[in-house]
Structures are given as C-alpha cells and as structure tokens.
Amino acid sequence: MGRGRRGGPKRGSYKNHGSRGNKSTRGGGKFKNKRKFNNDGGQKDVTSENKRQKLQPEKESVPIIEEESSSSESEEEVKPYTQLLSMFKSSSRAQQVLTSDEEQSDEEQSDDAEESEDVNDQSNEDDIDSEQDEDSDQIDEEIEEEEGGSLDDEEVNNDEEMNEEDSIHEELEVESEEEHSGDEDEEETSSTDPFHLHFEREINENLLEILTSPKPYETQEVKWKTLGRMVVHLPTKAEKKTEHPKPTLLGETIEKYVVPCTLPVLTTGIPLREYGVKLQLCSNLDTRPLSDNDQTAEELLSPLQHELFTLANEYRDIYYPEMNHLNSDDIRTVYCLHSLNHVMKSRDKVLLHNAKLKKAKENGEATDEIEYRDQGLVRPRVLIIAPLRNSAVKIVEKLATLLLPAKGQIINKDRFYKEFGEEKDDESKADTKKSYKPEDFEAVFTGNTDDSFRIGISVAKRTLKLYAGFYKADILITSPLGARTLLAEDFDFLCSIEVLVIDQTDVLYMQNWDHVLHIFQHLHLQPREQHDTDLGRVRLWALNGYSAHYRQNLIFSSVALPEAAALFSRRGTNFAGKVRIENAVTASSTTVCRVLVQLPQAFHRFPTPTAAQSADDRYHFFTKKILPQYRDQMMSNTLIYIPSYYDYVRLRNHLHKEDYNFGQACEYTPDGKLAQVRNRFFLGKKRLLLYTERLHFYRRLTMKGIHHIIFYQLPTYPNFYPELCNLLQDAFQNPKYRGDGSQTCTVLYSTFDAPRLAGIVGSQRAAEMLTSDRPVHLFVSGGS
C-alpha cells in the first residue's frame, strides 16, 4: 500500500535496511518508548490497526498526487521518484551485508510470521529480553563498522576499539534504566517540536509554486535587543483558493502539510528543553554543579546566543554579518548545539521506527502496510564549511563538549590532533616571534592554517567518532578547497544536507569564493549510486526533489559582503523563511575615527550605471584623472591599495605600458622578492607600489616609507583603512620625509560600494556622500 514498496518479497530485511542505511541506529536508541507501549497489553492491536488506517490519508496528501490516486499511481505523477527507483533497481550491488546473527534472526522471524501471536500473552520480561537481543545485534553491527574503516586507509588501534565497545555497552546499560513515556508523549511533543513541524510534513502545491516563483518572499522588519534590526523574509501569501477537504480517519488530526513561519517572537522564561533541545545537551551545556534540568534559556545562553538559537531552532535561514573574534565562540556554540540537536533527533526517530518494525515482525504482524519515512537519500545531514584546520579543531572540541558527558568517548582523537593540531615548529616560532599582529589576525591564524581538509563525524549518544566515512557520517566538516577536490569524483554525499553552516564567510571570500559556489551547485543533485539506502524509508519530499526547500542555511561573517548576501538570497528557498541582520553603523563605531596621523583624505565618487560595469568605469576614472597627478616628482612613495587581484593585474599591465617606475607586492610574490621591493620603496627607488588586499590579510605587513596612499577600492575589512593610514606616521617614514606634513590619502568609491563605505564613515554619512551632488568629500583627521 505504501509508495515506493515495489520490492515485494524483500520486505523481510526491512529492519536491517534501516540499520545499514543509517548508522545513526548504532549505540542504542530510545527503546524506553517501546516498553511502555508493550506494557499496555491488548492496546497494541488497536494501535497497530490505527496506524494502518492512518496511512491512506498520508498518501493522499502528497502535493504532486491527486487525492484519488492509489498505490498503483503512474510513473508520470511522481517522475523524480520513479527515476530514482529505476536507477537503484538496475544496480547489481546488494543493498547491505547481514551478519550471521541477523540472518538467523530474520529466518526465525519469517517462520514466526506465518502464525499470528497474541500480544496479550507476552509479559514484560519477554519485552525486555527482546530489547536486549536487539541491543546486542546493534552493538555487533556498530563494532564491525567501527573496525571496518574510515575516510582514509588508517585503522583505529586496539585500545580505541576496546574503549569504544565498553562505551557502547555502558550507554545501553544506562538507557535500559531510563523509563519515559512512549508513542503518546512523542505525538504530544511532535505537535510543537520544530524538528517535526519542519521535516515530517510535505509541501503543498501552493507553497511550492510560491517558492519556485521569481519573487518567493516578502520582507518585514523586526528589532530585537541584542541582534538589533532584522529583515525577515517570509513566503509570499498566496491567493485564497478552495482546497479539497482533508479526510480524517479514527480521530486523525495531525497536519500533513508544512505551515510557513510567521514573524519570529523571542520568548523568555522557558526552560531550554522546552525548545525541543535534547536533555543530554541541556545537561552538558549547564556547567554549574548541582543544577537541575529546568534552567531557562536565558540562564544557559548569553543574550546573543539566546536570540540566535531562537531563530535557528525554528529552522530559519540566518545571515549574521557581525561576527568577530570576541563573539565567535558564542556563535560556534549556537550552531554546534543546533546541529547536534538535529542529528540526535533524526537518529532517535530512526531507532524508534527500527524497534517498532522489529517488534511487529516478532509478533507475526504483516509489515508490508507499515511505512516510516524518516531518512534522506544518504546519511550526512549537516555540512559545516570552515576556512582553516584550526577552525575545524574548535568546532570538533565544541561538539565534544556539548555531546559527551564525563565518560564520553572520542574515537581517533589522537590522530585528529596530530593532523589538525599546531605543529611543534609553529609553536617554537610563535614563542620567538618579535612582531605583534592585531588581535583579529591572531584569532584567525593561530594554529594550523592549512586550508585543504575534510572530515566526517558520526554521532552516538556517548560516542563521537572522527574520520568516519562520508556515507557513514552524520556531520561533515570541510573547507571549500577540500570539498572541491572531492566533488570532481563524487558528490552524492551532498544530496541530503538539511543544515548547512558557513563559518567565517569573510575568510572564505579571501581564499577563493568560486569554491563555495561550486559546493552550492552540487547540493541536492540526484545521486548516482544507492549507497545502501532503503527507499521505503526515504521521505517523500526528498524523493520528489524538494530537499532545497527544507535546507537551512546559517551564514556567519565578520563583514557585510555583497557576495554572501547574494548567496543567502538566491541559493536558498527555505519555506521557514529567512532572517538577515542589518544594523546601521553608528558614528562611534566608524573606523575613520581611528586614523591617528594628521592626514587629508579625499573621497572621489565616480559614476557607474551597473555593478557589472563598475570595474571598467573605476579603471578609466583612475587612469585618466587620478594616476596622471602622481607623475610629479613631489608625489613619490605612493602605495596603491587594490582589493581585487584582477584589478591588480590590469593596473600592473597599464603601468608597464606607460613606463612607470613602480614595484609590485601581491600574495604570490616570493618572500625574497617581497623584501627587496619593500626596501627599494622605503629608500625611494620605487615611486609607486601596488599592494593587494589578500597580501595584507594574510601577512599584515608593516609597509614603511609610505608618503601617499591611494585606495583603488575601499577595503573589504573596515579596520584595514586605519591600519594603512596610520603607517604614514613619522615612525615609519624615511628620515627625509619626516614632519613635512605633505602626506595625502585618496579614495575611489561608487554607489555599489555602500556597505564598505558605511563601515568606514558610518551609515548616515555614507548615505549623504552617495546622494550628494558633490563628487569629492574631504576628511581631515589627527592633529592637535
């Protein structure tokens, strides 16, 4: 009766399909729900019959199928589903490998299924014994897979395997002592749980049409105390249409379609566990001794964390461009807590359904009519994109702190710190270094700064396994370059991503933004292989190709980037809505006020009609009106700051053509040549020096001998502006220029540089400069 059940006789291995296809069943699950369910005696027959009758309205609620359609619907009605099914049927590889214990149990269950058994004749002791047998099977499966391998060819040593086995047994012993409510409590919490409301329902046709339209969202503004001004994007309201009445059977009241979110509301005085957070995460988050589990969210989280988590917990897309080295750890705590909560809920849902299916088979019930949709096409659910290996270390440590109690286990921990930790040579250099860098530089580049890595992490209740295979992992942490090198061979691991986190987006922009776009282009593509997936357990919206509308994007950056804003608005169609934080830069927060040297700063606005044409207009304006002024002998020792490498190459070729006496310093210049050109510029042997933004970002060099500075374009980071302007102080000058007071600063900007201009001069002043009739504005800083 259920959709996708065209395998027929292969239904006997349903339980094993769920276990093999989703490793989140390892380490035991919430079998406590099943105990109370069985203790009700004859209630099970009625409940199981109710479940069978509840299936039919669920099939009728699929958005792309008419309500009169049955299980024999044509392939044209669900084209993406039939394509996947035909592709997977043609695969000659077996869907899974059963252990000897599982094969024996399946044979016994198939024999017992021929004769019906009375549920009332089973005692509570039989229920507990069957749960322990299932736990032992899962332990054997998990130990075999843990020994089976990881993303690389190295294996876990014997001590780690023994510790892992002990931790899994200990986890099951603790879980066997826990007694909570069963299916009734699950249905009560599911009616308010954001996870259930977001992923356990289908998209109706009207909402799907809105999300695929050219303008799917309408914007409103909300202001919170800590986050400030938020621009909320909500799905456009569709015209009211007469809908078919929803059939209800046996008191069925559960909604089948998702409901678009409304404006976010910040709630206070509510325990964190009532947000839907797992009790284990709440306990590990609260580090105070002898504290109960009813701590409110305000007591466990900072004001910034509380507001961010409120938005993330509702599965809204978030773009937060105000991250810095002071609040980065708080933000990392929020998205790690949300990711772990999402993975643990998904894992518990699969475990619960596996237990129900096995119990039904043991009782001789027919499982052909029982259908649980609780999985994706592949196992990985969370993707975290980070720029450097030191960022991955911080993320893994935060995950371990939130997930693991005192007796928790981290598999492959030594190997991880060996490959991702700071090398001894770097530590010795850090101790003997003489030059001191800014705090934001130290926060980014302290530790291992390799930008090519990827690692899979599988999550159990008290175990965190690193270096899990990508198709055996729950969380993937990768750099754009590390993912790019793998996507050329395989991209199936990205087809079921439900939570996507981009950390330190500004650093990724400095590396290679094309790699980030390449990852987004490979999200939710049709997989080329089955990867031991049981299609009967895959959610219908995933089979129909609607995964992009369920994916949540969390983007955190230190500066407001137009590229990140475009990625946020164009590459995400989340029906839960989007929230973009946009706060005005006050006069007290401007960086132009940090310029200490007495320096006249002339801001020249050049006209340009479009953003695509701004690069050409900037080049022509600079070469025709600005650059000729610096041929004069008095305008020597001029540094030209260029953010874009393409503009740098263009200007370099122009200066070569016009026979200018200049030097060049970019991120690709060798150290020896860089030292030589810096020395010649300081001595005045080079009149002009081209200096790229990426070189300054990665090195933070102290360029001496600057007498004039030109910003070909405003810096991406507002703090770079005062850093470079302050290099014109007498302490960094050639003795023959000290104290002459002839230094100048020239800045080029257009209307499309509004975010960068606002970060330097403030939002209000930037608006005046962009709309003023005067194309030149003069600032004078410093002085007594």
From TrEMBL:
- Tell me, in one coarse class, where this protein mainly resides: nucleus
Q: Which keywords does UniProt give here?
A: Nucleus
Acidic residues bias spans:
65-76, 100-190
- The UTP25 C-terminal domain covers which part of the protein? 592-779
* Amino acid composition bias (Polar residues), ranges on this chain: 83-99
Q: Name one GO cellular component term.
A: small-subunit processome
UniProt subcellular location: Nucleus, Nucleolus
Protein name stated in the entry: U3 small nucleolar RNA-associated protein 25 homolog
According to its UniProt entry, this protein's organism is Daphnia galeata
